[in-house]
Amino acid sequence: MCWWALVTEDALPDQRTAAWIATTDLDDVPIDREELDSHVQAVMAELEAQSDQRALTPGGASWLHVQHVPVRRLVGHLVRKLLALSAWEPFAQNPGCVIPAAGEALIGTRETSSREYRLYTVSWSGIAYLLSTRCLNCSEVTARSHRAEGTW
Predict the structure, then answer these.
(1) How many CA atoms lie within 13 A of 68 on its CB side?
(2) Which helix (H) or strand (E) holds 109?
């Protein structure tokens, strides 16, 4: 199994291994907008079906109805990055575990002009962590590196 290491733009050359992925390369992968929207809609529909009555406001609205905009944007970020990773030719030819970039947070927030919403975004290391659940050793490496870096 191949192990891919994420490397941020400011990484030192000695931090780059034989199988590394520059996050800037992944950000530049073109994504089909219709395919992205289709996947986002499918995930949102499943979230709605699974969480319809789980947490309700005093007025009876579901948490997803109240937080639909930020949740849809976060799902859009996740799906876009997963599509980019699967479309990136070197990874598509030799998929494997992805090791998060050292010191990079998994989830971040973005500034917004709206006071009602806090916009969350997922980093490439967040995608690596999400994907690492399928290989235990990668999860252990991820957890150790994030505890050591203090990014959890």
Answers:
(1) 9
(2) strand 107-110
Is-contact 149 105, C-beta < 8 A? no
The confidence score (pLDDT) of residue 35 equals 97
What b-and-e string marks burial along 91-113, b requiring 16 or more CB atoms within 10 Å of the CB?
A: beeeeebbbbbbebbbeeeeeee
pLDDT in the model for residue 112: 67
Query: Residues of the chain whose pLDDT is less than 50?
Result: 138-139, 142, 146, 148, 151-152
Query: Distance of CA 111 to CAs 49, 115, 117, 132, Å?
Result: 30, 10, 10, 29
Per DSSP (E only), the strands in the chain are 2-7, 20-22, 96-99, 107-110, 119-122
- Whole-structure pTM value: 0.76
pLDDT at 42: 97
Q: Which amino acid is at 145?
A: S
Is there a contact between 141 and 99 (Cβ–Cβ < 8 Å)?
yes
Alpha-carbon distance 76 to 47, whole Å? 13
How many residues appear in the chain?
152
**What are the backbone angles phi and psi of residue 127, rounded to the nearest 5°?**
-65, -45
